[in-house]
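TICKET: design request
STATUS: open
ATTACHED STRUCTURE:
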């Protein structure tokens, strides 16, 4: 496997430099995808820092999923087989990437399942994770304990999946479509930093983005049941 790290980011000017430094100091090559941030992300770095980073930019915000696709497409052009994707808010630790990479043995998605037994985790976030995990497990047929984690290893084969979403719902659809292609999803428990309420910067819209994720499941569910009954019919 040939792996590069990608960071999709949107308006994280206070954390993106430290996240990038963390990635580079752990020995990983890096692509940053600026998804239409108000302040151009590349302008935050000096010339020496830029030498170790490939910068890509969407002139307007297109969504996290589209930013990841842009990063994976560039990685493929450069000859990489996989990417490690992590968020630009400082929640994920680049030192944990090695555990995801070690767990990957081929055309698999590896999810860094966050250790939520730490301080500063709102109860609403814990419920949201449980709710999302229930549907993710149901639709993939594989046990998923942190379907909302943005810390993942993706094979470049995800570029061939028939994904229709672009924003936070993309992260749900990609694992469902990957599972539909009879490919594996694995999880590795990782340590993370969860900021306090005062530090936290999130572009996740609780109602609209949650409903978008639910809509992903509602569109896929009828086909899942159809395949289930067709398999029963074939066996009989």
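STATUS: resolved
RESOLUTION: sequence designed for all positions
ATTACHED SEQUENCE:
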């Amino acid at each position: 496997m040939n792996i590069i790290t990608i960071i999709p980011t949107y308006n994280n000017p206070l954390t993106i430099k430290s996240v990038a430094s963390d990635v580079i100091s752990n020995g990983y090559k890096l692509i940053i995808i600026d998804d239409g941030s108000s302040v151009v992300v590349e302008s935050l770095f000096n010339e020496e820092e830029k030498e170790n980073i490939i910068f890509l930019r969407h002139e307007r915000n297109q969504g996290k999923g589209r930013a990841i696709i842009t990063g994976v497409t560039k990685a493929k052009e450069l000859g990489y087989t996989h990417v490690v994707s992590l968020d630009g808010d400082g929640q994920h630790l680049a030192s944990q990437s090695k555990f995801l990479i070690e767990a990957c043995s081929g055309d698999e998605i590896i999810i860094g399942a966050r250790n939520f037994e730490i301080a500063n985790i709102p109860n609403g976030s814990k419920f949201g994770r449980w709710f999302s995990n229930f549907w993710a497990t149901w639709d993939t047929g594989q046990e998923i304990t942190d379907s909302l984690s943005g810390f993942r290893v993706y094979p470049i084969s995800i570029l061939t999946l028939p994904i229709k979403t672009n924003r936070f719902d993309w992260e749900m659809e990609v694992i469902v479509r990957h599972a539909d292609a009879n490919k594996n999803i694995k999880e590795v428990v990782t340590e993370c930093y969860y900021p306090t309420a005062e530090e936290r910067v999130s572009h996740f819209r609780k109602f609209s983005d949650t409903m978008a994720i639910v809509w992903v499941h509602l569109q896929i569910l009828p086909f899942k049941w159809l395949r289930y009954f067709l398999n029963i019919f074939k066996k009989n």
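CLOSING REMARK: The chain has seven helices and seven strands. The mean pLDDT is 84.
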